[in-house]
Automatic annotation (TrEMBL):
MF terms in GO: iron ion binding; oxidoreductase activity
Domain (Aldehyde oxidase/xanthine dehydrogenase a/b hammerhead): residue spans on this chain: 23-135
Alphabetized UniProt keyword annotations: Molybdenum, Oxidoreductase
High-level lineage: Bacteria, Bacillati, Actinomycetota, Actinomycetes, Kitasatosporales
SMART domains: Ald_Xan_dh_C
Protein name in UniProt: Acylaldehyde oxidase
The organism of origin for this protein: Streptomyces cahuitamycinicus
Amino acid sequence: MSRQPQAAVGAPLSRVDGRLKVTGRAMYAADHDIDGVAHAVVVSSAIGRGRITAIDTRAAEAQRGVLKVITHRNAPKLAYRDNPASGRFPGRQLRVFQDDAVQFFGQPVAVVVATTLEVAQHAADLVEVSYDAERSATDLTRSPAQAGPAPFALPYARGDAEQALASADVRKELTFRTARNHHNPMETHATIARWDGDRLTLWDKTQWVIGTQTEVAAVFGIPTENVRVLSPFVGGAFGSALRAWPHVAVAALAAREVGRPVKLVLTRRQMYFTVGYRPAYEYKLTLGSTRRGRLTAMVHEMKYETSRYEQFWEANKALGQMLYAVPNVSQNVQIVPLDVSTPLWMRGPGYSNAAFAIESAMDELAHELDIDPIELRLRNEPHEDLSNGHPFSTRRLTECFRVGAREFGWNRRNPRPRSTRDGDWLLGTGVATGCYDVFRGRAEAHARLDADGTAVVQSATHDHGAGTYTSMTQVAADALGLAVRRVTFRLGDSAMPPAPGQGASQTMASVGSAVQDTCDKLRQQAVTLAVEDERSPLHGVAPDDVVVRGGRLHVKGNTSRGETYRQLLARNDLTHLEARGSYAPEPEAQRRYSMYGYAAMFAEVAVDAELGLVRVRRMLGVYDAGRIISPKLADSQAIGAMVGGIGQALLEHTVTDHRDGRIVNADLADYLVPVNADIPALKAVYLDGEDYRADPIGVKGLGELVQIGVASAIANAVFHATGRRVRELPITAEALL
Ligand code: MOS
């Protein structure tokens, strides 16, 4: 097949859906205007653990407009069929209104359905719940870990780390702690549910329409194909919408009970109790090194929180195994079951916490050995993935640091901590490595080329901010040889060809490759039609010698011999051509390469010497992320992640009152996130190049990679500015006084 000219891919296109978004015409879950919709408001538990002894719903039911109050006393038994396809965590998910148990503060204990939102809100306040409360445990540092390792967190070892530590020139034993963080997307989670007989339609905020479809079908015990999930726009999620949370089942149950469509929008406060969070970690890292800075051993002991009913897992071990050339490694992961709701992956899941520990420790080692922190990393650059012996598909971390050091002016740095001042401000710079796996999943797509020379391409993927509408349009436009404005990409509907959830940065590699495959097939159909058609100017040309550009098929290198799609279809009396294509990663057993994206993160901070206030002054990220499909979208990923990383480093902290498990700062006034005034000049640079071993379009994924290492770079800069090492996130003013 001849290679198509690439015109749209690589161009700094503005979002094709940008106008819809800024004019308010993009339809988010709760925006859909469904005839006869009733409103549901969830009543949340006011204890952290125990039993419901009584629920008095009479006052609520007496309100005019209240259609029904559903509690565990009157709710029907739901099927909660096993659903292996859901990617669920080991354990048993929360079953809504199926018994009197309260397992965490803020658990849904009732739902009020009314004709208006205001009546439902008021009536929800009137529901009286009595409890038999027990003492809840919500503090990671004071609760016992689950006995024995979880099946997904088996210990790892290579070499003999204990022995190597005992004989190391330098040994450091460090304990890091990271706070629980909440995703806090702008759009709150919301679901509209409508039953038509035994068929259910959900307009839902989700990063995984297929996941929600199978999960809700399992909850109600109905065939998967009876559920359709629509999610054309998502107002941010950062991972929180990667599973169907209990409120989705509540909305569907309420709609079935009242015989009307029901809309359920979580309040901002409820967003802190039932839709996941980045779990708190305690991460003990012991490392051994030679005097010359060659790592000899690393021992990782991690502990993180999960709920009592599910064992949350995330990828927190990879970095410790493959990032540096450490001959002796051991890893132990403990999970601590608490009276909390189950966590869920948040941007850079697992890797982010591990990177904070590893990259802070590298900085401590560099300081102790008096070696430049970049140089220390270069001295420990591996030649292969030591966890499996595979070569790296591409690994250009060294180049990221070299390019970054030049761009950032790293060599102007005085390595001595607390050596640079600007008035009352102590200045410091820091670096850290970022790294994330190239996840990929099976994806399918469909494309249709119409007689008017326009095309519609679709896949059941998502756009929770990544810019999928735009990037897929670019890939499709080049593969079809059409101008971007002639291509429409559709997503967010479980009835479309299946795609993975939009998580783990796998969308571009997976869906992008499926879109390219689909559009290649469609273009080839048109080319075959032309070269076999005696009336075509391309008759008899070898298919491989035909390319398509601007909707016109022509001989490669001879633009005058050809015809347009429109001419070709019209002459053949065709209304359209269509094709279906797919992408599937090679099975694990056949994976011959270790595939990761890499980043070098640089930060400069100023710390008020008297007040301990930390201000980030500038940041630079240099990325080895493979091919960049859309530079403008890439910047919005990278810069957005630096903003998020500044939050993680300095501000974000979900505070729990351990007396009853209540989250104290469950609103955006008290849960601190960076605002414009916190954000300085941020710059992202991408190394040219592609990784065709990773996938057919050469990308390595960007959304998580750009988040990992940001907080460590800032923490290391804080040390350089002040000489104070803070091993706990967020780094607050108190810690620096
Ligand atoms: Mo991302 S945490 O995989 O949405």
